[in-house]
Amino acid sequence: MKGRAIDLGHMAYVPAWDAQKAIADGVINGGPDTLLFVEHDPVMTLGASFHDDNLLLPLDEYENRGIEVVRTDRGGDVTYHGPNQLVVYPVFDLHRHGKDLHKWMRDLEETVIVAARHFGIEAYREPSVNTGVWASGKKMAAIGVKVRKWVSVHGIAINCDNDLAPFGLIVPCGIKTHGVTSLSIEAGRPITIEDARPVVKGAFEEVFGLLLEDVEPAVALA
User: What is the C-alpha separation between 132 and 17, in angstroms, rounded?
Assistant: First the structure.
């Protein structure tokens, strides 16, 4: 089965969300599964299960620190996106992948586990806490999605070599008992977005049985 992979480069959160919605409309109408890669400006995103007390600062203080705060329609609580973190948005038609939300979430986790293995990292699920991918008792990748007409948007944030300090300004994903980690910390060497992107793409191809053709954003979003 064929699909597309699109590297959006560095883009603010809301324009990337708009791009997802436009692509999702095409997928709903029979277009190919599309995997988006992006690196965001600093932003705290608030999911459908967000609790106010998981923001540890007043809203205007985040703005003062150059961090946008955006309420979204994805699942989950609050998380952080920023430079040097790889964000992956699989805009896929779940009719092609089992039409099962539980399976979809487990398959998304599996892609990160497969990718981490490439870097010698033993990543795993921690279902007693929540959805996501973990290493050494800490969360390495957060996952939150929204499904409309069985087409999924939003997706996965994988900490590569990003600064983890902003996670200290929130209760990440509403979890107070576990910290966060990154590919670079777990591997003991720098792993950049550029290192991770082709590996994650290959993991998606493996887990979902896809052949993903690289497509320029201008073509896909025209």
Answer: 20
Helix (H) / strand (E) containing 202? helix 193-208
Q: What kind of fold does domain 2-220 have according to CATH?
A: BirA Bifunctional Protein; domain 2 (3.30.930)
Q: For residue 161, what is the DSSP state?
A: S
Strand ranges of the sheet holding 68-71, from the earlier edge strand across to the other edge: 68-71, 43-46, 78-81
Mean pLDDT of the chain: 95
Catalytic sites, residue numbers: 173
The model's pTM:
0.96
Distance (Å, whole) CA 94 – CA 103:
10
pLDDT per residue as tens digits for the range 159-206? 999 999 999 999 988 877 789 999 999 999 999 999 999 999 999 999
Tokens coding 100:
């099962």
pLDDT digits (tens, 9 = 90+) for 134-156: 999 999 999 999 999 999 999 99
d(C-alpha 34, C-alpha 212), whole Å: 8
The residues facing 159 across adjacent strands are: 85
Domain residue ranges in the chain? 2-220
Going from the C-alpha of 148 to that of each of 15, 74, 101, 130, the distances in angstroms are 19, 11, 11, 22
